[in-house]
TrEMBL record:
It is a multi-pass membrane protein. GO terms for molecular function: ABC-type oligopeptide transporter activity; ATP binding; ATP hydrolysis activity. PROSITE patterns: ABC_TM1F, ABC_TRANSPORTER_1, ABC_TRANSPORTER_2. This is ATP-binding cassette, subfamily B. InterPro entries: AAA+_ATPase (IPR003593), ABC1_TM_dom (IPR011527), ABC1_TM_sf (IPR036640), ABC_transporter-like_ATP-bd (IPR003439), ABC_transporter-like_CS (IPR017871), P-loop_NTPase (IPR027417), Type_1_exporter (IPR039421). GO terms for cellular component: plasma membrane. Residues 355-594 form the ABC transporter domain. It comes from Actinacidiphila paucisporea. The chain crosses the membrane at residues 39-60, 72-92, 145-170, 176-193, 259-281.
Amino acid sequence: MPATTPDPAPAARPRSSIRSLLRLWPYVRPIRGRLATSAVVGVVASSTGLLIPLVLKWLVDGPVTDQDPSGVWLGGGLVLLLGVLEAGLFGLRRWLVARPLAGVEASMRGDLYRRLQRLPVAFHDKWASGQLLSRATTDLQILRMFLAFPLVFLFVNATTLLVGFCILLAQSPLLTLVLLGPAAPLVVLSMRFETRYALAARRAQDQAGDLATLVEESVLGVRIIKAFGRHRTQSQAFHRQARDLRGTELHKARLLSDLWAIIMTLPELAIGVALVVGVLQVSDDKLSAGTLVAFLTTALALRWPVESIGFLLAMSNEAATAADRYFEPMTTDGAESSAGAEAGTHPAAPRGDGLRMEGVRFRYPDAPAGSAALLCGVDLHIRSGETMALVGATGCGKTTLTALVPRLHEPTGGRITLDGADTAEMAVARLRELVAVAFEEPTLFSATVRENVAMGAGPDGAGEAEVLRALEIAQCGFVHALPDGLDTQVGEQGLSLSGGQRQRLALARAVVGRPQFLILDDPLSALDVHTEALVEAALRDVLRETTALVVAHRPSTVQLADRVALMSGGRITAVGTHPELLRDNAEYRRLMSGLDTVVEPLERSDAR
Ligand SMILES: Nc1ncnc2c1ncn2[C@@H]1O[C@H](COP(=O)(O)OP(=O)(O)OP(=O)(O)O)[C@@H](O)[C@H]1O
C-alpha cells in the first residue's frame, strides 16, 4: 500500500499561530532563563544604539556650534564606544542562546524519533517517509531559527520601538505624531499578511515533504525505474512537484515583497515629511538644529525594528506551521503503549499451552468502507514445541495474521495467547523478546553482518558463539568469504547481497535469540532447492526447541511442520498433517499442486 501525504486539511483550516507556537513551551521551559536573559541583553544592546542620537544632539548643539575640537573628539569617541558596546552585547546575546537552542532541537528530534518507533505499522503504512523526514529535519531547523531570532527580536524590537518613541516624544511631540501616521495601516496590513502567508507556508512545507518522498522512492527504486525505462515519467513527476513547490515559494516571496515594500516605503515617507516639518520648525526657531538631528537619527535607527517586522512575522508563521507539522505525528493516536508488565519484569509465562488464537478478527483501518473483515474469527492452537505451517491462497491474510502475534497490528477482535498469557496485556518489549519474526521481504540495516544478526537477540545481546550458530542454521557460510567476514558492512550503504543471501541473514537474525515463539513468513522463498534443503535440515533442530508458525507456499516448506492449518475466507478451515490434508481437502490439494489463485475480496466475503 503506497504511503501518502497525511490529511492535507490542516493547510486549509485557519489556525492561530500563537496557539501553535505555544505548544513549544515544554521544550522551551528548561531554557527560559537563557532566553529571557538574551532578550534583556538584546534590549540593552538596541537601547545602547538609541543613545547615539542623543550624543549627536549634544555634539551638534554643543562642541560643533561652539567650534570646540576637543568636545568633538570626545563626542566621536563616545559614539564609537556605544557602537562597540552595542555590537558586543548582540554577540553576547547570540552566544547565550546558540548552545541551548541546539539542545532544544536535538531533544525535539529525539522525541520525534522515539515516537516514530512507537507508532504502529498502520501509521507508517499511511504516512509518506519523506513527510516524516522533512518534519525531523527542515521543520525542526525552522523552529530553532524561530527561537533564536523572531521570538527574541519581536520582543526586543517592540521594546526598542517603545523606548525610541519615548525619546522621540521627548524631542518633539509634533514630529512624533507625523512619524506615527503610518502605524495604523501597517498593523492592518500585517494582520492580513499573516493569514495569507500562513496558508502558503503550510502548502510549501507539505510540498517539500512530498518532493522528499519522491526523491527517496526514486533512489530506492532506481533498479525498477531503469529496468522499466520509467526514468522519464519519474523525472516528469519530479519536475511537476518541484515546479509546484517553486510556485508556492514564489507566491510566498511575492507576499513578503509586497509587505516589505509597504513597510519600507511608509516609514521613509513619514521620515521625509518629518524632515520637512522639522526644517520649517528649526527655521522658525521652534526647534534646535541638534534636536532635529537627534530626532531624525533616532527615527532612522528605528527603521530597522519596523522593517524587520516583515520577515520576523514570516519566520514566525513558518515556525507555527512547522510546529503544527511536528506535533501531528507526535499526537497521532495509537502509539504502542507500554501497557502491561514492564519489559523484563513480566515473568516468562510457563511453558505448556503454546500459541493460541481465539476468534481473532482484523480489518485494516484504511480498508474500503463496507468491505468484509480480512480475518473474521481465526481459531488456531499451536501446541508448545509444535511447528504449524500456515497455507492459503495469495492475499488471504497469512502475513497479516502472523503480524498480529508480535502486535505489529492490533487485532480488532478476539485474543492471542502465548503459553496462556494474553498478548494484548503484555508489555510490547517483553512480547517481542518472546516472539522472533523473519519476513519474506528481508530488511538489512546499514551495519555489519554481526550487528544485523545480533539485532535479533534480546536486550542482553548475542555472543560470538550464538551469532555463529545462527549463521550456520541459516546456511550463511557465504559471510566468511565477504571482504571483512562478519565485520562486512551490508544493508543500504553496504555490500549488495543477493535476495537469497539477505533472506538467510534475516533467518539467522530470527533464530539467534533462541526465541520461545518463532514466526517465519515464507522464509525460504528466495533459495534454490539445494540450499533450501540444507537450511531446512538445520532448521529442524531449532524448530524442535520452539513453538513456530511458518507461512508456507511450497510443499518443501510444509514438510518442516508437524501440522498444517489451511486459511480461507478469513478463517482456519482445516488443520491436520500434510498427508491428511492432501487426502481430505480439495482446496489444500489445489494449493499444493501449484494451481493457486488470487483471492478476490468478493470470494472472501462469499466465504463468510
Ligand atoms: N497495510 C495494509 N492496508 C490495507 N490493506 C492491506 C495492507 N496490507 C495488506 N493489505 C491487504 O490485505 C490482504 C491480505 O494481505 P496479506 O499480505 O496478509 O496476504 P497473504 O496471504 O500473506 O498474501 P501472500 O501469500 O501473497 O503473501 C491483501 O488483500 C492486501 O491487499
